[in-house]
## 1
Amino acid sequence: VSWLRNSTPAFAVTSTDPDEGDASLVTQATRGDAQAFALLYRRYLNQVYAFAASRLDSRETAEDVTQTIFLKALGSLHTCRQPELFAGWLFAIARNVVIDAQRTNRVVITTIDDRSELADTARSPESEAIASEWSRELERLRRDCLSAGDRELLDLRMQGLSDKEIAIALQRSHGAVRTAQYRMVKRLRGCLDRIRGGMS
Amino acid sequence: MKRFWLSPAADSLSDYWNALNRNVPAAELSRLEKEVERAHVEAIREVRQGYQPPLPDPAFADRLERILMSAAAHPAAEAIPLPRVPILGTPRRNRIGSFVPQVGRGFAPALRLLLVLLIIIASLAGIWYVAGERGGDDSKVVVPAVTPEMEASPDIAMYRGNAARTGVVPGPGPTGAPVELWTVNLPTSFFWSPAVVDGVLYVEGGASGLFAIDAVTGDTLWTFATSSPVAAAPAVVDGVAYFGSDDGTLYAVDVVTHEALWTFPGIRQESSPAVVDSIVYASTPEGIFYALDAGTGAVVWEADLGSASSGAPAVADGLAFMGSADRKFQAFDAKTGEPVWTFQGDGEGGYATPTIANGVAYLAASGSEMNRFFAVDLSNGELMWHTEQGPDQGLISTTATPERLYSISEDAVLHAFDASNGAGVWEHQLDEFVRAVPILSGSTLYVADNGGFVRAISANTGQEIWSYPIQGGVNFALTVAGDVVYTGTDAGNLYAITGSDSIIAPSAFVTDEKATPAASPAPAAVDSGSGQPIGTVVMDATLSGGAEPLDQPQDATISPDGLIWVTDGGNDQFQIFDVDGAFVEFWGESGEGEGQFRFTRSNGDPMGAIAFAADGSFYVADVGNARVQHFDAERNFLGSWGERGTGNGQFISPAFIVVDSQGNVWIGDDLRDDLQKFDAAGNWLLTTAGSGSGEGQLNYQRDTVLGLDDTIWVADPEHRRIQQWSSDGSFIQAITYADIPGRPVWVQSIVVDESGNLILADIDGARLFVLDPDGEVQGVWSLTYPDGSLIQNSGYLAIVGENAFVMPDWEQSRLILFHLDPPLG
């Protein structure tokens, strides 16, 4: 695969403004501006990878899935009919690819603790301890209180998607997402109360 | 050490749960629920604080970027082997491992190969088509399930759609986003599925007997009283409704005269009758299987099953089938009752209602430990194949097409199996336990669960297409007739849910007189009275604000001197524009002092509004500070009133404000769910009724605006209506979405023009509806940007001039000036 060795793609367009909005970048990328797509990629790589890794059991699978997601996005960018909601569209692809991976690989939903090897280790010891305690508690809530649908909703929420983007990602109505999210949080809170002894 | 997730959110939920346990009044529960809602965004923020996102390895990130760049540069790059093995080619392992036949390994590639072959073969024959309108997965090919029912009427004559109990209905099912056609509450806890025949829904009505309900309007047409509650799904054939009741009586009731033709005693509860060729099939608890003359109730034949009957009877291919508790499954000649064969299964528990399709009887036997699923050859009663499911994974019910079986297991997984061998095709984990057989229409499965959701799921991929929340859980009460899903809950609510693409009335049931009411011809501006958009909005300007851009603008209001004041939600200020869109100035600042505002309330929603009085003074709904501030025309602070609370003159979320012609100030509070009226000095005058769904009650209301004669209009989207109050606070009317051709999905904003026309912004449907003062639709316009994208999540409209409007798009943080094309006639 010698083409991989090229350090700078010859076709790169360098005039793209890195601060441009998604809609503009999508439009440019659709017209063949590879650099615009590169900016979208850099903008969403961490979120897409984190979403995949939160739902899959190994770093390798998460990387495979992430690669598939972005290749699919690149190949079907012209079908993104609401460029300003690119994130929702991208996560709709992400969701489908992750589901396919789970089905074909019999993927066990990973726990947050299991993913500690995947986490960023550049934290102070104290913040690491706090986050670690919280991670355990959140994982327990996530595992014990939430349905599969709720977990997916939470995972999308964790990536910072808006209600509208989540609605597109889940192919549900905006209202349905609002309702589902409300129910999900309610369940989490009820469970938290029980875990912490307030409501047993 | 700080503990995450210890916010007031937990406390408010605690209060809520405690209240639930104490059976406190509904209004108080509703208030507490609001508290929970208010805090939930904060809770999400807290969760994210502690969230450690797994980050990609930098080397991987770099490598993938290069791959993408190369792929972008080389259209054929997909053909270049990528550094990793594609994940989609790995062998499938099924969760119900033990029964997957040998084809299970490597099944996915094989299936794809099969699909490719199918495409080639089908395209040569000119009969293939590719899915994608709804399911969203462009790689999947739909091979429509062709069944005899598809060519028939939309009627659902009996349980599971037909006597073979296939669960396949002609549909076509709703298209577009799910919208409520109507909801009614009956004095029962719905358990069984309704029949729908000739535009009439036949449902159990608890102790009141059988209800016949207009399928289009939800109106009760007639009832038939029974001595005890209806206890199985009715069958309606040739003008007669057949149904059993709790006391074992099987009734045959003429649907025209509403009189009983005959009754038959001793029938088992839960044995939904099957009716074929003028014979009614039903069984007794003791195991007597009866064939009764449909016209007289006389016994045509009877057979002793030898054990208690199990499930409902099925009839197909000239055979009548009945299962029993000893796991015998027997086939009889449907006309003579002659025994044809008996299949003896193993496992635990009796059989659920069988599904007869493809020359096969599909049977599920569920026990506490052992669960079996059998495919029995109809020609000889021999076992063709069987599968086993683990504890708590027994299959509940099966929907069958020639290619696939769809079944839900006790652990709430919806499965698609290959009909020829039971191999798994896909699975979809549902949130809640499901009893009702999935209903298949076209390529969509409809499922209703115990947790209060109706879902549409792609039969090809298992992906959810939409879900719709309902009040209460669903047992078996689900069916699809025409383009409407009907479902009844254990709370007694009966729902008719159609699609946003459906027109005034569901197409399947529109009779001529219903479609064109003689007294009210369709308004000329509406295309054929269908409520379909006749035009679109045309952008005149799209504004991002002054030097500091708009951040989540919500409300636009025109001042007496003709300027546009916009609440700049994220910046706690106003941005002021002229009517051509030129930025004029900022005004106001963030804070809690005089002339300072909080336009983001505690849950993070941008809110707040302004209203001008005739004397040029103005009032600001300072939502985050729970108060109203009053300024003179020179913007000098005159005073303020309000504090947090539920008493008169207090606020929780004063988000909407109106000043009437007398200078009185109305405040809409969407967490108190009421309107309060004050005089110009802030003295409290009245409060409307609070939370609820009744007339004049509100729940999480939206826009509040002034109508003709100082009336007040309020958007009440949770109840799918807009409501009107008089200036003395008395309720005038509600216009429900169902009354509006084209049927809005979520009306967020209202504005009333000088003629009293109501302009409604349907933000989920991305349309503008214009109603005349009598509520007649004058036109519908698509809310779309020039690139075709939808204008959704918009804020509150204002009229700038003749055929000129302004509306904030809060999610895009911009302000749009537009006109209607064609203009409102």
## 2
Amino acid sequence: LEDELQQEQAEEFEAFARAQMQSLLQFGVLLTGRLSDGEDLLQSSLAKTLMQWPRVSRADRPDHYVRRIMVNTHRTSLARAWRRREISVSEVPDSGSQVDEMAGTDETAVLLAALSALPKGQRAVVILRCAEDRSEAEAALILGVTIGTVKSQLHKALARLREHPALNGDRSDR
Amino acid sequence: MSGRDDQVMRRVRDLAGAATPTARTEALLQGAQRRARTQRTLRMTGAAAAVVTVVAAAALTFSDRGDGADVPIAPIVPKPSPSAAVDTGKVVQTVRLDEDRLLLVMASSGSGGLTEVLDGSGHRRRLGTLPDPSGYPGSAANIVQALVLGGSWYVLTNDCAGAGVRLYRSDDSGRTWSAGRAIGFASCSAGSAAHLYTVGSGLVLVTKNDNGPGTQVSQSSDGQHWPAQRRSDNGASTLAFQDDGSYVRIWGMEEEPGQTIVKADSLAAAEHRTQLPASADPLNLTLSRAGNGYVVLASNGHAYASSDGRTWTARSAPFPTCECTRRSLTALSGSIWWADAREGRKGHYAITLDAGRSWHAVTGPSSQPRQSTLSFTAWTATSAVVQADNGAWLTRDTGRHWTRITSTVADPSPSVTARPGDPPNGLPGIPCGADQQGLTVRYHPTDVAIACGDNGIRATQLTWQNWTSQAAKAQGVYVQNDCKPTCLGGHLRQYPFAAFEFRGPFYNENFSTVVVTFQPGHTGPDGQRRLVRRL
């Protein structure tokens, strides 16, 4: 019976992961600024989710839970980096000088560069509020902070993004 | 929210909509499942600490002159020569110069690095000394590699205290050495490395620094002109190159036991994965170039040889009866391979002269202090030098008799010039380039890298108040890179602290813990009052 239950949960997780993979990957890429790092972040976060899946699956929005794991994992990655060993990748790169696919277009590169210049907390708020068009309450729920924090972080982030020539109003109106 | 804010938000939304990568769903999903399985297994077995560690194979490459197949070999039992006059110092690297001669690179008292040539009759000739970069005494003693290419000899050093990765060169067979030239970032943190490879008539430098610029590669055609390093996305620091530029490396992930071999025709070419035979335990593979081919040792003790990096043939195990961990294998020349492994605190050693078809046990010196460790070996047709804990040993009859050529007994009178920051009581400091049995050059650092090989987190302007074998205490300034927007473009922020302490017994050139206590009313970069780092 336990095996059947585990099998059922594994299938349930797979279905969830397949359905959410695209949007979660986009979230990861915007958070990290690179496709390869975004994939790695997503894979690590999905592994953590899978280990807690019986509890996660009972939540109203498991995708919120995964996003919070991604934000926290990304936030702590620098602190743990000094003890990191090999870089983890899901597949062997095809080339020794692989170019990041996400940097393929100028506009994408501009966005990633602008986001990368923000502190990690502000970056997460901008992605949730602007790129994913979530409400302040939803962003606060995902990040585990108050709505006031979301507002203030977004305010600071937008003040910095306004200085970016490719993101200010003049450019977008053209 | 202002209208301009709305415009920026819309702009970000539009750009993000265009930046939608195609998810490799199956690969990502399977990878996540593998990682979760691994984590569960590690938790269940209580072996979380046994994550995959790539034990770097020694990066020396040797010219393959003679396979030594005709040389008889007996079990090697070094015997001390009681009347032998020995020098203090540690043979850090040995390089086979030709059939008869070995180059010894030594860290010794009061000097950054000595070089000698040892011939088959046992005669040693002192050569030039590696000059120390000013301000960093002993940095040249942090010798990580030596090699000979064409008419030039090279020594690579890696100094965490600030001198960085430096390359010394001699064009007159070691009589004089150039001032060390900085060619890379210092890499001291866990998992970091610096390796120099010969590729045809040129050199390739690979440095790995997880918290700095990552893994970087630089290729020099003449060993003198080094273009700026460029980032290598494969993250691997241990490779085995052939003269045509093709290479083999081990691929694996920290969280996921299971490693495979990757082959590529050049640094810019596509890589191809190759599986080892099913009998190989793909944990902790060590890789070495062997002549025109490669050799790999798996953690279950089996050795594998390949001529092309794709097809692998099993060879006999060097340690058939030992329950060893941390095995590694180095090809000293084409068919002479050296294997070592750990069984608890005991070391096992074996050598083969016929490319792994038969192995011979090597026994360490009889008077081994504490840990039995033999390392840094190089063999000619008749001579071998082995560095043990109590000195370097030479054999001229393939192991029947041994003579100690250097002693690493504690130097009774270290010749060190006092530096600003040294404590007045003359207590021992950090020995550079030697273990505590072989204290050679001692100094008290005024600058300590706490974490990050790029010196991103460090204590500086240190003034030492005391230094014992159990702890050391200093005053100074704590500095941390804020990594905004990136670690390369970040700013170094200073935080005043009340005390900087090393704690834990001083062993193997390190204390075990760093404790930084910030001044009352001040906190560290993350708001903490005290910072503790395991070293």
